[in-house]
Amino acid sequence: TYVVNEKCIKCKYTDCVEVCPVDCFYEGENMLVIHPDECIDCGVCEPECPVDAIKPDTESGLEKWLELNRKFSESWPNITSKKDALPDADAHKDESEKFQKYFS
Ligand code: SF4
């Protein structure tokens, strides 16, 4: 599966949802997640993200993010169309430690 990581927090550009053939993105207040059981590993979303927030879970260090994607994709609503990014997305796109600062 592919997973959405910390870089999405406070940005949520949503370019990824337009290209997903199985509509497996789910939307929270501050970020998107991918449902790991619905993702078919096609990889087309990865290059669409302007902040590089989507990676295959075969990359190291993504265990926490895989669990977070799994957990929240069960309760957040499905998102299938691109919408405006969060208002301060550009100001937050290169920020570090976004999980600690903003994720609730
Ligand atoms: Fe959707 Fe493909 Fe990205 Fe999985 S890898 S979330 S199926 S676009």
Describe the 3D structure:
This protein has helices at 15-19, 63-73, 89-92, 98-102; strands spanning 2-4, 25-27, 32-34, 54-56. It is globular and about 30 Å long. The strands form two sheets. It has a two-stranded antiparallel sheet with strand order 1-4. Strands 2-3 form a two-stranded antiparallel sheet. The chain has 104 residues and is α+β, with helices and mostly antiparallel strands. The chain has a single domain (2-79), classed as 2-Layer Sandwich (Alpha-Beta Plaits). The chain has four helices and four strands; from the N terminus they run βαβββααα. Iron/sulfur cluster binds at residues 2, 19-22, 24, 34, 39-45.
Short description:
The chain is α+β, with helices and mostly antiparallel strands and 104 residues long.
How is the secondary structure organized here?
Elements: E1 2-4, H1 15-19, E2 25-27, E3 32-34, E4 54-56, H2 63-73, H3 89-92, H4 98-102
Antiparallel strand pairs: 1-4, 2-3
The chain binds iron/sulfur cluster (SF4).
Iron/sulfur cluster (SF4) binds next to loops.
